[in-house]
Amino acid sequence: MSEVATVVAGWGITFVLLATYSMWVVLRGKNIGQELGIGEIQDSDPGKDAGATTDS
Amino acid sequence: MTAAANSGAKMTATPITRVLGVSALAATALMAVLGLVVSPPDVIQGEAVRMLYIHVPSIWIAYGGFALTSISSILFLRRSRRRPDQGRHYDRLAGSAAEVGVVFTAITLITGMLWGKVTWGTYWQWDARLTTTVLLFVTYLGYLALRRLPAEPTVRSRRAAVMALISFINVPIVHYSVDWWRTLHQKASLSVGRRPEITGEMYWTLLYSMLAVTILATWLIIHRYRVIRLEELRDEEGLEALIASRLNKAVGSH
Amino acid sequence: MLAEALLVARKDLRVERRAKIALGQVAPLALLILMVFAFALDANSSLLERGAGGLYWLAVLYGGTLLIQRSFDVETDDGNMDALRMSGIGSTSLFLGKASALFVQITVLELILGPGIVLLYNVRVVDWVLLFAAATAGTVAFSVCGVLWGVMSAGLRVRATLLPLLLVPVLAPVLLAGSRAFETALGVRTGAGWTWAGLMFVIAAVHTAVGLGAFGFLLEEG
Fold first, then answer.
1. pLDDT of residue B38
2. Judged by CB atoms within 8 Å, which residues 184-223 of B form the interface with A?
3. C161: which DSSP letter?
4. Radius of gyration (Cα) for chain A, nearest Å?
């Protein structure tokens, strides 16, 4: 492979992988949130435990 | 404020993480411009040097993520020893950091192999860093597999935390044994001339890339943390529904 | 504490002697593996001779994994693990006991595999002391890690696949060092054998220490 092709492949794979993973995380959160009927998460404190609406 | 309107769009987002997310997007876009267009080709390596700007930040995030996993695991074990129901947030942090670490380890390996092919002429070298990294990758895939299994949450978290610790202790052992292997029996086959002189624009581009990737990784870890929290909530709900049937059978089926 | 450990080890070995899984099934399987290696390397005697050390440890890894699995299947099948925990035996004794029982079983396996490579691969032992030192250290590391990962995947339905996935990365340095030490002991490579055996002892010691410290966490139920 030429240098340019290598760089294109490396950066391309990296960005595709990161975009896919980011989408997966966001969509998974969205799906489970809907499943649970939780809508008020984003109003809670933006600290680490923002997801904790019913901390047990 | 915007809860009702946006709840369907971004369930695990808060204003802060949304700002962080947009920053990550902008930062990585700028990183691509700097790394691919603005920064000059290297005298020795030519265009291939551009791999540097994703390879090095990836390994930094990978090792940083695994270190975070280990620290959180220690904190979790200390907390949960006193009270078993405590320290769950450390467990979640350990899990999300490990997963992001695994993603970036994969990127490190892929970019490293591609880069190796153009500069060394071979995809793989059995040197200490490469071998350690690939073993690390498999180790943390195992860690994630252990976390995903159906088991009692506290037991599973504790097992995962112990595994994270052992894996971390194992990193230097692996590294030094492979290093010995390669130096005791043969000279390093390729001089490490792959390291270009990093100065000026290249230096700043690399530094900036580290920053951009760190922002992205932080955003990912925070989001993943919240998704793990949601997964736990869902499992708890599912569990309550199962309790009735669990009372009938001694060991509930999954 | 040691008396309790001995008790646990004896119990495991008695169960094993009755079932005869280790000798009756795992050992023949490991010997078969030695034969299959010869098929893979085209029964090329010089290749087999040079690779004998590594192939030996691979066969130990394979057989050892099965023995570890077996050692914890026995515990979890009938809720024995709970019974042991209730019995008041400390986690340290439990750890040492189970590790000793595994040590004995893996040693038996190795006593069959050792002559196996000598006979089948036509190798000659030039340094018996090194051979035994490396084998002992390696076996300790195998048993200790085996107990740790065994209890970690115990009770999970997927343990058959999970155990090797967890075990191999952590044992990789042992396999590497063991192969090199054996090559020296078998006279196919000069020097450095004792360095590798030393490394194996260090690894065994580290994992024993970690195991003693961590085992309690793994036994506690939520």
1. 84
2. 216, 220, 222-223
3. H
4. 18
- What digits encode the pLDDT tens for the residues C47-60? 888 889 999 999 99
Domain range summary for chain C, segments of one domain joined by +: 2-219
Residues B228 and A30: beta-carbon distance below 8 Å: no
Of B7, B51, B231, the CB nearest to A10: B51
**Using an 8 Å Cβ cutoff, are C120 and C38 in contact?**
yes
CB contact under 8 A, B178 and C214: no
Q: Give residue-wise pLDDT tens across range B107-144.
A: 999 999 998 888 888 888 887 888 889 999 999 999 99
The contacts of residue C222 (CB under 8 Å, 6+ apart) are: B84, B152, B153, B154, B155, B158
What is the pTM (predicted TM-score) of this model?
0.84
Following DSSP, what letter does each residue of A38-50 receive, concatenated? ---GGGS-SSTTT
Compute the distance between CA of residue B246 and CA of residue B50 in angstroms, rounded to an integer. Answer: 57
Q: Does the CB of B76 have a partner CB in chain A at under 8 Å?
A: no
Residue A16 Cα, gap to closest chain B Cα (Å): 10
Secondary structure of residue B8 in the 3-state scheme? coil
Nearest chain C CA: its distance from B162 CA (Å): 7
Which residues in chain B (91-110) have CB-CB distances under 8 A to chain A? 93, 103, 106-107, 110
Of C16, C38, C165, residue with least CA distance to C102 = C16
